[in-house]
Amino acid sequence: MKNIWLFTLSLFLAACSHSDSETPMENPDTETMYFPENNSDTWETKDISTLEWNQAAVQPLLTYLEEKHSRSFMILVNGRIVMEEYFNGHTATTPWYWASAGKTLTATMTGIAEQEGFLSIDDKVSDYLGTGWTSEPLAKENLITNRHLLTMTSGLDDANGDDVSPANLQYKADAGTRWAYHNVYVKLQDVIAEATGQSWNNYFTAKLKTPIGMTGTWLASGDGDDLSVYWSTTRSMARFGLLALNNGKWKDQQIINSAYFTAMTTPSQSINKSYGYLWWLNGKESYHMPQTQIQFNGALIPTGPSDMFMALGKNDQKIYVIPSKKMVVIRMGDAADDVNWALSDFDKDLWEKISAVIGN
């Protein structure tokens, strides 16, 4: 009995030892998920002091971001903004290009079209685009499915630049036998338009952009009308990241079914184990880089969380999604160092700085 009384007293004294002026630490695991309202600039924030983060490491992170030509940076925890910073004349209302980070929009829309019964990812691409959409022999062209475009395993030659006209889509290997980072994925937008009987932009707007309150527009990349790049504000990019954090669910609406979303963000083939359906995956045993057939051992970003999956775009456009931390991180800007396709040394260095703030 005496021991129970002493234990109760110790708990009481411990509770009383905290000053009323201290800010209680919140547990992200028990906090409800927040979604910003559509057509509203209002977005709930979370004071960084309520998290067990190293506030002394925040300014070094921001200084590094500015030095590395960033235009915006944002961290969400459970959907709430913890950090939102703009640099080099950029503002909350300034649009910027997603580059290849926008591939994940196309992957998501492919899943939506499939769940609505318009297509199957295992269908041949020629079922929708007709034969002759490449320069391959017909037997080889007919091997290419929508899944191959989603996984970068079409077998088409990636050495011929961004042009995806038939003359430029030439045979390199049988579909499914070679992983190569190739802009031919954009043909999925044509597949979706043909399958749904709607323009790509109209279907995207109705099924993804409007339901989650995104703004932005698709623009030609300069390499032809078929190669489109999405431009939006940082907050619109963050909305898509928040959808991804919640396995394709926005508030009470399952925008894309969770089974497809899980498949999209897990290894999609055995050649590049760090690639899903147009999403990059951290923490895997090996990876391939764009424009090379070399296999590298280890995780893509060894300084980042092992469960992180990523939308990565040219010149360091980033959406990092970390389920274990209920976190989304956005970076937009110019190339941190040299021009790059998607992944760069900046990812590793940036995550050293972020980890110094948020801990392991």
From TrEMBL:
<dbReference type="InterPro" id="IPR012338">
    <property type="entry name" value="Beta-lactam/transpept-like"/>
</dbReference>
<protein>
    <submittedName>
        <fullName>Serine hydrolase</fullName>
    </submittedName>
</protein>
<feature type="domain" description="Beta-lactamase-related">
    <location>
        <begin position="72"/>
        <end position="310"/>
    </location>
</feature>
<keyword id="KW-0378">Hydrolase</keyword>
<dbReference type="Pfam" id="PF00144">
    <property type="entry name" value="Beta-lactamase"/>
</dbReference>
<dbReference type="InterPro" id="IPR001466">
    <property type="entry name" value="Beta-lactam-related"/>
</dbReference>
<dbReference type="InterPro" id="IPR050789">
    <property type="entry name" value="Diverse_Enzym_Activities"/>
</dbReference>
<dbReference type="GO" id="GO:0016787">
    <property type="term" value="F:hydrolase activity"/>
</dbReference>
